[in-house]
Amino acid sequence: MKILSKAEWSVQCEMLSSYGKIVDNLVKEKKEHLETIQTYKKVCELLAAHKNYRLYTITNIKDKNSEASEIGRDTMVILVDRRKEVSNDSLRNYPINLNAPVNNGGEIELYAINSEMYYSIMHETELRIKSHVPYIEASFDYSVEETTVRIDEFHSRVSFYDYRGKGYGSLLLDSMVSFLKDEEKKKNPSMPIRFIGMLSYVDIDKEKDIEIRNGFYERKGFKLKNMSKDGKNGKIEAMLEDIKTKSNYT
Asked: For a FRET experiment, which of 18, 34, 71, 249 has its CA 20 to 30 Å from that of 113?
């Protein structure tokens, strides 16, 4: 048995503390890897169970406010396609306005999912707007003049989960624009595609939320119309080509 000096004991304590931190980090990394694997497995289950579900893209999201910021999180965008075929004889003669019923084209929904949302979807058998993950839901309406895409719901704060400021909103809108260019524009290149929608009071909790929400749409290329004096209420509108995504920023 060796009797350690005070200096040697201090060194031993520092080494034990260092080893403890390494073990804690390994345990944390293992937990994060398991949650990522479980999230992929759950998404695969949902895709297998629903024919109109599609894994649209996987991208790495880096959150500057998260401990995972250095490596980011692989985030999946799931597209739920509920569009309906519309024959040329059934096309509207004029584009719809914002308050008109939309029943001439169906809907699509997009959900952003990664390990951060796993515990929100682990018991779900389908994706829906109450699944507590960031999502965008839009209705389609076809006319002889244009294709109208009405944004019905678009939120990164759902129930008591707040995912705002992490890039999920941009990812969902970018994915929708890409989808429209890939599928709607290629099908009919000369047909204009117009986005319309109402600003949602659900996004407003504090005064600063007004500037955050409105600024997001303006940076993306939307025009804000018929705004109330306090900026809480109004309409959004943009042509597909005017919406700024990561692929067309200059």
From this structure: 249
